[in-house]
């Protein structure tokens, strides 16, 4: 049984994610799941572009951090991204699962695993986000 996506998500725009065909499947502060198609996101040799995997990773982890910070009036900005590419993907979709490692007042850290349609790991990585006040709102101590 899947959890419905939060209502506030529809108020946000994701231009890059939209261009890549990104679909959000699950979103909580603790776990985020989403996917992109390989087709349209390849490098010249027909395999998934490493940058596309990095965008998927950062999008998933950042949205988890946004979900974490929302109740405190915070948004998330990525400050450290690490990704290791393990296997090529040439067709279908790749799915990322971001799992929170640390949810703090000032930082949120996520580990992300990306797999192909056969469940084979294509990339792993980590994103550290800094939690900042929403633009235009007073600072919280």
Return the domain count. Answer: 1
Q: Low-confidence stretches at least 5 residues in length (pLDDT < 50)?
A: none
Mean pLDDT: 93
Proportion of helical residues: 10-25%
- The structural class is alpha+beta
| Tally of alpha and pi helices | 2
Q: What is the CATH superfamily label?
A: Hotdog Thioesterase
Largest sheet: 6 strands, antiparallel
Strand order of the largest sheet: 1-2-4-5-6-3
Domain Thioesterase: 45-122
Protein name: PaaI family thioesterase
InterPro entries: HotDog_dom_sf (IPR029069), PAAI_dom (IPR003736), Thioestr_dom (IPR006683)
GO molecular function: 1,4-dihydroxy-2-naphthoyl-CoA thioesterase activity
Structure description:
The structure is a single chain. This protein has 141 residues and is α+β, with helices and mostly antiparallel strands. The protein has one domain: Hotdog Thioesterase (Thiol Ester Dehydrase, Chain A). Helix content is 18%, strand content 40%. The protein has two helices and six strands. It has a six-stranded antiparallel beta sheet with strand order 1-2-4-5-6-3, with helices on one face. It is globular and about 45 Å long. The relative contact order is 0.20.
């Amino acid at each position: 049984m899947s959890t419905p996506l939060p209502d506030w998500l529809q108020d946000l725009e994701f231009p890059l994610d939209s261009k890549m065909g990104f679909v959000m499947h699950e979103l909580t502060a603790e776990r985020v799941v989403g996917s992109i198609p390989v087709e349209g996101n390849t490098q010249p040799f027909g395999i998934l572009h490493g940058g596309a995997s990095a965008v998927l990773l950062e999008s998933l982890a950042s949205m988890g951090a946004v979900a974490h910070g929302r109740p405190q009036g915070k948004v998330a900005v990525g400050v450290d991204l690490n990704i290791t590419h393990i296997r090529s993907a040439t067709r279908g979709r790749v799915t990322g699962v971001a799992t929170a490692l640390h949810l703090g007042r000032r930082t949120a850290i996520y580990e992300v695993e990306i797999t192909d349609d056969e469940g084979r790991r294509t990339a792993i990585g980590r994103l550290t986000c800094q939690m900042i006040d929403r633009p235009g709102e007073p600072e919280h101590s």
